[in-house]
Write a structure and sequence with these properties.
This protein is of the alpha/beta class and 294 residues long. It contains 10 helices and 15 strands. The mean pLDDT is 93.
């Protein structure tokens, strides 16, 4: 069976399980369940701490994992991101008291407190900065007040918590993160680090899983649009709704009219409906797409 790691809690957990359910996989009903066998799809799910998933996948003990890009990079595990999933987005940044420093190049000799010590250590090294890193498990914004560090590095959403602590965000983002699918590097690269041709497409089970997940992503981004329009306006109409390859155009019983069906981006659907109506289209309908294969 394909062995897949899924986050068992936190902001990654519910969206990941929802996406897997949309992809046709069984998911647990009891949060205390740590292992779930989906025999019909030949998959075994392991519900693990998000921070541990990259370690298990990198070791090769599990075939696939869903985790955050920040957690993957922080772990230093030999696993690689192969698909972005579009949820649990976050930005990882530095913050300090006003006047302490303007960007990472001024951190030399200072101490940075963070829950992502591996990620920060690598970022400092990439910028040629010699600074100390203190690992904390949480609430890093109090580290400066308590004199543990001069700088903190943490996930920033609105920045309200940092401002309330008298801190300001400085420099460019360290990382923009989101949920990702990861595979062991051993599946993707040779021991020398050279990419393996065809990987991961050489494994039909992995290929099927990725195809299903990609299908969910597309289904979430598009709706199916149907409308009727006069023949003389078809070219202008299909220019608005080109579809992924080409729309379906079918003659109607009423002469001079055709029915058009096409996938359109859901975020643009209302605007497209307005423009189609102005062209003379009628009976304009949109319907959700629950699954697809491209």
């Amino acid at each position: 069976m394909l062995r897949i790691a899924v986050p068992n809690k936190g902001s990654l957990s519910e969206p990941a399980s929802a996406m897997l359910h949309e992809a046709g996989y069984r998911q647990r009903k009891d949060r205390r369940e740590l292992v779930l066998v989906d025999a019909e799809n030949e998959v075994e799910f392991f519900f693990l701490r998000p921070r541990d998933i990259a370690v298990y996948v990198g070791s090769g003990k599990l075939d696939i994992g869903i985790t955050g890009r920040d957690l993957l990079l922080d772990s230093g595990s030999p696993a690689e991101e192969i698909m972005q999933l579009g949820f649990a987005g976050s930005t990882f940044r530095y913050a300090t008291r006003p006047g302490t420093a303007k960007d990472v190049t001024e951190f030399g000799g200072m101490t940075i407190a963070t829950s992502f010590s591996g990620l920060v250590t690598q970022h400092l090294a990439d910028n040629g900065v010699d600074a100390s890193v203190v690992h904390l498990d949480g609430a890093v914004e109090t580290a400066i007040q308590l004199g543990v560090a001069e700088i903190i590095a943490d996930v920033v959403e609105t920045g309200t918590t940092l401002r309330n602590a008298g801190l300001e965000i400085i420099g460019e983002p360290i990382l923009k993160s989101e949920a990702v699918v990861i595979l062991p590097q051993s599946r993707l690269r040779s021991p020398g680090g050279t990419p393996i041709p065809g990987a991961p497409d050489d494994d039909p089970k992995v290929r099927q899983f990725l195809r299903r997940m990609q299908g969910v992503l597309v289904a979430r981004r598009y709706v199916m649009m149907d409308y009727d329009i006069r023949v003389e306006h078809v070219e202008k109409a299909v220019a608005l709704t080109p579809g992924l390859e080409s729309p379906t155009v079918s003659p109607l019983h009423h002469e001079g009219w055709v029915a058009v069906r096409s996938m359109v981006p859901s975020k643009d659907a209302q605007r497209i409906m307005d423009e189609l109506y102005d062209l003379g289209a009628r009976a304009i309908l949109t319907t959700g797409i629950h699954a697809c294969r491209l």
